[in-house]
Amino acid sequence: MTDGQLLFLVMALIYVFECFVWLPKGAFVCLRGAGSRRRLRTAPSNFSSRKGGWILASPFPPLGTVFVTRPSPVALSQDGIAAFMIESPNPGFRPESVVGPVFRWEEIERITRDGKKIYINGEFFVISSTPEASQELLSQLRCLKDVAKEKREAIIKRQLRLAFNTRRVGKLIKFWERKSAALRGFCNLLLFLLFGGIPACLIFYGASLELLACGIASLVTMFLISLIFFRLHKRLYPDVVFERWQWFFLILLVPQQTVRAHDLLLKAAVAAAHPLAVGDFALPVDSEQRRNFMGSLYRDLMFPLQWKSKVSGSTGAIISEFYDQYLLPELSRFAGSHEVELSSWKIPEREEEESQSFCPRCFEMFSTSELKDCHDCEGIVTLAWEADQANPS
Predict the structure, then answer these.
(1) Shortest CA distance to 324 belongs to which of 308, 346, 337?
(2) DSSP label at residue 7
(3) CA angle 221-222-223, nearest 5°?
(4) pLDDT tens for residues 31-78?
(5) Of 55, 63, 86, 153, whose CB neighbour count within 10 A is largest?
(6) Which residues pair with 48 in a beta bridge?
(7) 364 lies in a domain?
(8) Rounded Cα distance, 30 and 37, in Å
(9) Contacts for 3 with CB less than 8 Å, ≥ 6 apart
(10) CA-based torsion, 282, 286, 292, 295: positive or negative
């Protein structure tokens, strides 16, 4: 293997690594390829740990778009906040099995951010999927900290209402896909130059003017991508200053990072949206993926893995208030606008006559009519089929 071939191989391996997206536990990635079809996926179990996992975005032209969405990693109440994610979508275990730090609002003196991590009074509180998502959460927490107690309820409800607003999510995604179209085009051009144009010039012309021209074209394209990325990032994430300059120089100097600049820009564009709202916009009506995805998230919220037996006192009160007074009513409102689909989210198809009961969370079926805890879903009691549910739909 020649030095040129070895260099090309190293560049290709680095590029493939840049195509992987890290997803914290409970997060999903919305992928779109060449057409209008979108998919929502989570990290496969063989590439995951208790903290999260990796998923591969499209490494080939036309690249596509990547949006990461995740349920709120904190529980909010009028009295305080807890680092605890109530939701733990199937498949898999709860993202955080132990409740993290808990603070009453009057105890909080300062809320800061360092990359993806948020600190309260200098103590680590929670980590987000991206620095941009962390900044969004930081702004929400500061907003709640700075208002009187009686005003927090309305603010929490408004934040959740926006998170479940499908129309708003759709507008955001379409707007930024349209605004970043030029960036995506230049990223595809650079990919062609790096892995098509330059190798072809080396093979057919060697060290020639054609190779020099291709190299110059690549450098100019990298420079243009850096400028476009910086301008759009500043508009989309105005408060994320340090990371913007960091990304700018990486994109300017590292070709593999430059090709993935489009992913880097849009990854956190809908960070404040709930996965249900993103799925509602992205997945085709009546598709099996939509039914499975939306149903799984809905059932997980309706029948969350038990936490009340593990936490008590003020911590349990904060988590219970967030779920009972804010999250569950918003879910009911969301479900009310999807009455046609709701039955398929709540009741599985009875595939075998021997099935006498099922888990309302994971849809696991059991041959006994005895109601008991589902062995996969901690603390969730099975339900018996009703007489008229011979083949529910």
Answers:
(1) 308
(2) H
(3) 90
(4) 887 777 888 988 877 767 777 888 888 888 778 889 999 998 899 999
(5) 86
(6) 53
(7) yes
(8) 10
(9) none
(10) positive
In which residue ranges of the chain is pLDDT below 70? 1, 4, 47, 89-98, 308-310, 312, 386-393
Cα separation, 275 vs 169, in Å, equals 10
Query: What's the distance, Cα to Cα, between the start and end of the chain in Å?
Result: 60
**What pTM value is reported for the model?**
0.87
372 found inside a domain: yes
Task: Report the distance separating Cα 174 and Cα 103, nearest Å.
Answer: 38
**CA–CA separation, 363 vs 73, rounded Å?**
25
Please check whether residue 115 is in contact with residue 134, taking contact to mean a CB–CB distance below 8 angstroms: yes
Q: How many Cβ atoms are within 10 Å of 153's Cβ, its own excluded? A: 15
Rounded CA separation 392/83 (Å): 39
Burial of 88 (0-12, 13-18, 19+ CB in 10 A): buried
Any domain includes 370: yes
In this structure, what token pair is assigned to residue 226? Answer: 């850096």
For the chain, what is the domain count? 1
CA distance 131 to 242: 10
Domain that residue 372 falls in: 352-386
The answer to whether residue 379 sits within a structural domain is yes
C-alpha distances in angstroms, 210 versus 14, 123, 265? 25, 56, 32
